[in-house]
Amino acid sequence: MNREDSDVDIRNRNKNLKEDGDPRFSGSEAMTRIESSQQGNSILSSLISILVVISTALIVFAAARNSITWHFQRFWGASGDFWQALWDRILDTIGEDALTLWMYGPIFVTTFVYWFAGGIYTLLDMYNKPSAIMRYKIQPGMNEPVDTKRLMKVIGWVLFNQFLITPPGSYLAYKAMQWRGYPAFRELPTFHWVLFELAILILIEETGFYYSHRFLHSKYLYKFIHKKHHEWTAPIAVTAEYAHPIEHIFSNILPPFLGIFLLGSHVATAYLWFSITIVATLHSHSGYHLPFLPSPEFHDYHHLKFNQNFGVLGVLDRLHGTDTKFRTTTQFTRHVMMLNLVPPREMFPDPSPKHQLGK
Ligand SMILES: [Zn+2]
Ligand SMILES: [Zn+2]
Q1: How far is the CA of 141 from the centre of ligand 1 (A)?
Q2: 230 alpha carbon to ligand 2 midpoint, in Å?
Q3: How far apart are CA 71 and CA 300, in angstroms?
Q4: Which end of the chain is flanked by fewer CB atoms within 10 Å, N or C?
Q5: Which ligand sits closest to the CA of 222?
């Protein structure tokens, strides 16, 4: 999708807005009024989203500050001891060498989590069993079953990125951490401190990923770099790291690492955070909107339409208006965590051609 296409989309969207106006209003003045009030609403709801995020971060921060006090240490108590004992055993086994923990550790953790979780999704994609799960497919009929040749190409590229691109990146990350300093390995941070850091890490990743990803959608970068990742308009989990090596460094490795670097996190927090980001990106590419899990509709729609939904959380898309088309779709109404077993496509069926949703 190039810039001309985006412009056409924007023009069509504006045209639709005009055509869909309330019939009680007529003439250009009324149209301007409708458009400016819609614009006002959109900006207002963006500001509200940002306020919600900032206030959540502040609340988490308030809680985290207390976490360093004796009371919270006591509250965490027994469970904290369990994780500390486990961590002690790991360190007793692998040692406390900085290069091992900061360079090889992240490579091992991210690769292991990627293929363990990604392997489960891939078995689903290959065998389509249990068949009940197919009802949860976001784009039904796509990759049912996945084409073996395409899958092999993806696995090859991902392994290339993980074994040839990630290691030098991880070495630079180790050097960067040595330069900035980090907490001693032995003592784990408190639970509340980890929660606080995770909240900040998510916000930093959202920012880093949104802007690097939008940049990748500029005409030339898209053509030479990002197009590869977009070969899949109906992605499967393991396409998460199916990307040009340059994209792998700037969009996949750097945004999650940036927060760890800025916060000077404990190496165990880094492992936890990297594991969360890997599972999250696998799930958001999986193509399965399963109950009790976060909705992957947002990024799936990005692969389907190219010029919508650049972020992870969607906060910056709201602010920049890069989700306006998405918000008029059935996929958007399905973009919630399902708290029952009804598949989203059955709970919110596709509109019939005569009665389109959002109109
Ligand atoms: Zn993607
Ligand atoms: Zn993209």
Answers
A1: 19
A2: 6
A3: 44
A4: C
A5: 2
Q: Is 283 in contact with 312 (CB distance < 8 Å)? A: no
**C-alpha span between 327 and 334 (Å, rounded):** 11
Domain positions in the chain are 36-288+297-313
Cβ neighbours of residue 204 under 8 Å, at least 6 residues apart? 255, 258, 259, 262
Structure tokens that stand for 154 in this block: 């993806």
Distance in Å, CA 100 to ligand 2 centroid: 33
Per-residue model confidence as pLDDT tens digits over 242-277: 999 999 999 999 999 999 999 999 999 999 999 999
Query: What is the DSSP code (8-state) at residue 323?
Result: T
Asked if residues 286 and 303 have their Cβ atoms less than 8 Å apart, the reply is no
Q: Where are the alpha helices (DSSP H) in the chain?
A: 3-19, 27-67, 70-94, 98-99, 105-127, 148-160, 166-180, 191-216, 219-221, 245-247, 254-263, 267-286, 297-305, 315-320, 330-334, 344-347
Q: What is the mean pLDDT of the chain?
A: 86
Q: Using CA atoms, how far apart are residues 322 and 159, in angstroms rounded to an integer?
A: 32
Distance of CA 302 from the midpoint of ligand 2 (Å): 7
In this predicted structure, what is the pLDDT of residue 76?
56
Question: To which residue do tokens 């040595």 refer?
Answer: 178
Q: Distance, CA 238 to ligand 1 centroid (Å)?
A: 10
* Nearest ligand for residue 285 CA: 1
Residue 88 in contact with residue 268, Cβ under 8 Å?
no
By three-state DSSP, how is residue 141 classified?
coil
The residue type of 25 is F
Separation of 232 CA from ligand 1 center, angstroms?
Answer: 8
User: Across the strands, what pairs with 137?
Assistant: 288
CA atoms of 242 and 230, how far apart (whole Å): 9
For 25, the 3-state DSSP assignment is: coil
Closest among 342, 348, 299 to 135, alpha carbons compared: 342
Provide the residue type at 228 as one letter.
Answer: K
Q: What is the pLDDT of residues 201-228, one digit of tens each?
A: 999 999 999 999 999 999 999 999 999 9
CB 199 within 8 A of CB 304: no
